[in-house]
Request: fold
Amino acid sequence: MSELNNIALKILSNGKGILAADESTGTMTKRLDAVKVPSTAENRLLFRETLFSSSSMSNCIGGVILYDETIKQETSKKDKITELISKMGSIPGIKVDSGAKTLAGSPNEKITEGLDGLRERLKEYHNLGARFTKWRGVYSISRSYPSKLSIYSNAHALARYSALVQESNMVPIVEPEILMDGEHSAKECYEKTSEVIKKCFEELILHNVDLKGIILKPNMILAGNKCKDQIPNEEVAKLTLRCLKNSVPSEVPGVAFLSGGQTETQATENLNLINKYNDSNFILSYSYGRALQQSALKFWAKDINNIEDTQKVFNHRAKMNTLAAQGKWSKELEI
Reply:
């Protein structure tokens, strides 16, 4: 087994998942504003350090995606953030794209940028302790979208990124996200997600990316948030599985779903059903941001120095998702 394959398996095995704590300073400021906590570098670090030092980091969280600001910070005990994460038994990762910008030639769509200077930044992040990375491509669904241009351009960028990441001895998370915004049906989501994922793998193979050393981070198959015909969770699970089995090469070790607009319990319930029905060889786990952090953030905002009780809230959510990643979750286990 390759070193990259080992890292990917360590992140996702035994029900473990990924904590996506890679919110940009702007996004984190919005989250903190919403709970009336000043968005200072110290407060952003305090909340993240509270999560990173919780007991569920050892039992549930296999990897943590960081943001550029965070990976360069020190903990209250003067450890590097990456050292704290490693000490807790998890693997540090880093978001390396520079965000979704307007796609030239199709101004209503987005292309993710950040390839310029990436090789040098990857060396720096590896030296700081990162062992995996994240790059997110975003796609909208409507009558005209995603266009062939958007599907190709983002797949090409994801493949170039992945090749550079593996060259730096890190595992790339490949994240093509079909957004939930819109009136599209689950059927349309299924068709477009399948097309997007297939094109991503065509490009990854063309760029000689080792598929055993990546993690795929896709959306689940859901109807748009403005669609009148929402499908039951069982159908979400079955369509999501069918999409993966038909679109993802068998060499890929694991899939870590994004929560994409779902509530905390929706994201857990859908993940649980996907694993109950899972008849593939893929590890199917989670890479959640808000769906892991939101309850903890709201609780923490009442008293930012109440570390222990905030960790209890986070530990519960992490445990629920780790059970769901093994098909062992039930509603009765929720508080």
About this structure: The first strand starts at residue 17 and ends at 20. The chain has a mean pLDDT of 96. Residues 186-206 form the longest helix (21 residues).
